[in-house]
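During the second half of the funding period, the structural biology subgroup turned its attention to how the target accommodates small molecules. The most pressing case was iron/sulfur cluster, which had performed well in the primary screen but for which no bound structure existed. We therefore specified the complex as follows and requested a full 3D prediction, including the ligand pose.
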Amino acid sequence: MSPRRRFLRTLRPEDYENPSPIYCVWEITLACDLGCKHCGSRAGKARPNELSTRECLDVVDQLASIGVRETTLIGGEAYLREDWTEIAAALVERGIACSVVTGARNLTQERIDAAARAGVSSISISIDGLRKTHDALRGPRGSWDAAVDAARRVAASPIRLAANTQINRLSMPELPALADLMVELGVAGWQVQLTVPMGRAADRPDLLLQPSDLLELFPLLLWIKRTKLAPRDIDLAPGNNIGYFSPFDRLLRWRSEEKGNHWNGCSAGKWTLGLEADGKIKGCPSLPSHLYTGGNIRDAQIADVIKNAPELIHIEERTRQDLWGYCKSCYYADVCKAGCTWTAHTLLGKAGNNPYCIYRALDFESRGLQERIRPREKAPGEPFDFGRYDLVVEPISTAKETPKILDLAMDRVTSASFTDPSLWEEEEINARLGRWTQK
Ligand code: SF4
Ligand code: SF4
């Protein structure tokens, strides 16, 4: 198994006292060798005016000077830049841990060796389902085989192997089998996140989960974590758009299930930074560029932008008064602030109200209701663009034939015997997911 991660992204007491980005996600090129149907940046061709090597090395100096501890290189496909390992080595030299997220279609042994020489500490490979599903989502046939093959080679290298998966209507039923694959590959960590309607995913409403699907997703993920991953010391890392509160947040999101851990709100601009290949500076790489860019490397210093650009600091300064819809009156609003800004904004056209929330789904369910998203406007077709969805509240339509999934799940969450796999057999999971896919 790959070496365990040093948790540089874990917040320290001083990070709360003086918040500043400690983690940067840096798109170094938009060139890509895949054509993913859920790609938020609609990657493929390099941006017309991407930063030169010299400009990138200056960015590295700036990241070091503001105290960034870890940077993840992404694309497009980061390895399609000839100088990607030079950038990685410069980060490591300045004391910044460098990780890479990749679709790995052409992550050759030479590239893995070069990354290891540069000091890359972690490579996270995107695997979005079993072979057929992954290839359907990621574009070229053979993408899954290439990704799995690359994962085996990274596992055999000095670099820590991680994986990441988008959860959507195609991949969710395959999560238990994917967990088995993670065990077999020997990943050290597995990040899962919801597919969000941005970029090409905005063109595919059929892929998206419904908010009420979280009622099945959370128990499923918890079951996977406890029975398949934790016994093998594999970290399950739910992405920032899978949330929030309820008993599940603490049990699922944190490595330790101690009481007191909870979601702390969107960290864009506060502890997180996003850079685009042409120099745009955002609080989070996923946020829509035209609304959340606070400056450009070519005419601004990162230190100034994080302190002064309204596009970054308004997220941190958001209060309950800036929220709307259900979130505005939510018990957790002052801390949560409507969860992931990116998810809420691209779904409903405005941040501050987020139906992808387990606490909220549970509340609606307790009143015999559920929320459903319904596409209203299409996205224009630009990188990081989005359309618009309406939010419908309706009676739980399948109440008669759907078993009390939640009751069952909560029983098991609170039961000491939850970890007994015989209580929740594969067949039962499959039967539940079978019903779910027919909704
Ligand atoms: S309803 Fe909104 S504010 Fe409340 S926990 Fe969920 S996302 Fe956060
Ligand atoms: S917008 Fe979402 S993904 Fe980005 S920092 Fe905020 S919570 Fe995280």
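Two results from this model are relevant to the next phase. The radius of gyration is 21 Å. Confidence is low (pLDDT under 50) at residues 399-426, 428-439.
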